[in-house]
Structures are given as C-alpha cells and as structure tokens.
Write a structure and sequence with these properties.
With 469 residues, the protein is α/β, with parallel strands linked by helices. 36% of the residues lie in helices and 23% in strands. It has 15 helices and 22 strands.
Amino acid sequence: MSSDIKFGTDGWRAVIGWDFNFDNVRRAAQAIADFINENAPSSGETDKKTAVVGFDRRFLSDKFAFDIAAILRSNKVDVTLLDGPVSTPVLSFLTMEKYWLGVMVTASHNTPNYNGIKIRLEGAGAQPKTTKEIEALIDQNPVLHLFGQKAEEKNLTELYLKHISKNVNLKKISALKGKVVVDYMYGSAAGYIEKLLGKEKVIPLRDEYDPSFKGIQPEPVDETLSALKKSVPEKKAIAGFAFDGDGDRIAVVDEKGNYLTPEIVSAILLDYLIKYRKVKGKIIQTLSMGYLNKRIARKFNMQFEEVSVGFKNIAEKMRLEEIAFGVEESGSYAWKGSLPDKDGPFTAMTFLEIMAVTGKKASELADAIVKEYGASAYLRSGYPMTKPLDKNSLSDKIKKKLPKKILNFKVAAVYVQDGLKIIFEGDEWLLIRPSGTEPVLRIYGETADKKTTKELLDYGYKLAAPFFK
C-alpha cells in the first residue's frame, strides 16, 4: 500500500514492512532519479548525472539499495552501488569527491524495526529545499525499473579511510601507549578504527553483523554504553568510543569508564582546534547544545550562533560561511578540515590526536576544560509520544505559563526557534521540543551539577505535561 513519504531532520524513516517496503522505496527512488535528471549537470568530464548508493547493516538494506540503484540506472543516471555495508560518512565523502548525489539506506540510530533513506549532496545532508523537491516528485512519473539494469558495484571505503589518515596526525597517534575500546553497536562502521590504527591497538565490542542489533537501539548515549564503560577500565584502555548504526554519531568514554557528554567532548575538540590548529571563523551549534562553546567563543572573541536542531543546518552554514566548528548534541561534530557532515570515526581519530599532542589522558582533558571554562552537567530525557505534537503550538502554550524564576534560576531569555529554550542568567538552560527523527518528546538541560540538571529536566516535563498527555 502506498503511503506518504516525508523527509524529516535527516532523511525518511519508517517501519520495515509497513511504510518502509519495496513499493514505497521504489516510489522514492523514482522521485530521486527525476530530481537528479532535472537538477544535475549533464555536460563536461566531471559534471555528470552521477550518483552513489550505499547501505547499512539493517534488515534488507542491501536489497533496498539494489533496487534504488537499478531504478536510477533505468533512468539513465550513472550510478555506483557500494558492494557492502558502509557508514554514512563514506557516502558524504564520496559526494565531495566523486559523485553528484548519494543515497544511503539507513535509519541511523533508530530501533531495529526501522529503516530509511538519507540523501547526501556536496558532502552533507540534503537541505529541506532539496528533500521537499524530491517529495513533490513522488508519483509524478511511474517507476521505471527495467529488467537487467544492474548497477556497477564497487568498494570505495578505502578512499574515505585515506581521507581520515591524511587529516589527522597518524604519527603522533601511533605513538600513544595503550589500546582503545570501540563499541560499534552492531553498526556499519565496524572495523574502521582497526584499519586506521591497526588491530593490535583496538578492542572491538559488538562488531558482528546482526540486522536486529540484538534488540538494542544503536544510539551512543550514556544509558546504552554500560559494556563500553565497564570494558575501558577493565582492559586498562586509554579511551573508549562508540558509534551509532550508520557511524556518523560518536560517544567518548575516558580511561576511568566515565561517559563524556557532548558538551565536554565538543569543548575539548574546539579548545584544541583553536589553540593548536589555529582555526578561525564562527562557532555554530544547535539549540540543544549548551554554554561551554559559548564561553570559549567569548574568550577567543569569536562569533557564536545557534541554529535549529538537525546537522543539516550546520552543514548549510559551513557551505556558505567561514565556520570554524559546528556541533549538535547527538554526538555530531564538524570543523575546518573535515567533511561538512557528522563523522564518528574521524572525530575518534582527532580525539586521539588531541591526547597524543597534549600528552593528557581523556579524563585530564575533561578536567582541564572544567577548570578553564566552568563545570558542565548536561542531561537529556525522552518521553514517548502517542500522537504528533506541533512544535510551535507546544512552545507557545508553555511560554505563556512560564514563571520568572525556575529552581532559583532567574529567566534571562526565552526562544521559540525550534522548540522552547529557556536561558537563565548564569548560562544554565532548559529546552523542550518534540524529536524530528522519532516519536519522542525531548527535554534537555545543563547546569553545573547533575542533581540540579535532573531537577531542571523534571521541571521541564511538568511544564510540558498538561499539553503532552
């Protein structure tokens, strides 16, 4: 049965066998083919209607990708199908170097019953304008799926890994003493760090192929990483990393087994990039991030801006402006010299470079950030939604009920750009917004200690509850 195909924060995602089925994937593929034929350059040696199709390890991802590639080829698009599961950053890299457009079959960090499609252009996620054009083309033409139109298959992952090797100090990293633990969460980035560092330096976790992800949600956040946090100190490793289902998000664990929040990780990366690589430009982050990067921007007299949630909003800025660093709270980072897209393995290797160059352990890097810029206790909670919530309507309703003080924090500013974000006088903050990728109400907050942040999140839920239940 046909159904609406809508692209959200980063792609179209739906339940396998329900809305995400072969009929609907073929409809989407035809629309993508029509978009390519209407928009891609068609003359010159490099300006061709070229596309690359990749897939993750989810159930039937390879078969969906095969059909997409065959339909693109049937529509006279010069298409390459990657010959095995890859991470989304591989697709992003290939659209920077070799292909006009990339199609990735993945549902990223969603639960195993989901699958999806991401579009990549110029090294990053497609902008809303592009995905709306593709949506508008769905069912405008019948699906053209000609017999025998099999796309050429290639293995291009090594090109991506060479890109990482060229952009980090491998000599310094190789001199680090000790191993790293890498939790691949059964995702498609499995084996990448071994290829970059060498097998002898890596202790892999959950790297086997399992389309069911053994029932877990492959999202690298504190509550899903108990095995990694336990393994790092047990194995006397120098650090631990975890990647999501398609390898673009990352989590970092220090040598003591402590989860480092995206607030701390982003501040470590940014501080290093400014002091050691001398990056210049604007610092940009999504509204779901907090105050450490803002404080770094103040110290170094750099421009600072917040954008709506969704890494594509950062990527678009990176295309148009001089951006030094961009970050989203989901464990997604980019900076000058990297792709304009989130990239888990590249971030992991850069973090190891920071350890090697500074001579500091992971925990020492975190301590140094707190000492220089202040303590950060960032937390996020989620509540399942039984029905969709209109983001703007919810924000307006809560805003009308807001007191001038919350938990002894005086409200300094309130924004309704992408959900409701409350800024307090000391830089503490609270954000309430429905997720753009799954049926969940997200509540985020940051203060100087976990207990207070937890109280703030609980208060945020009480604010939303009358309009949420």
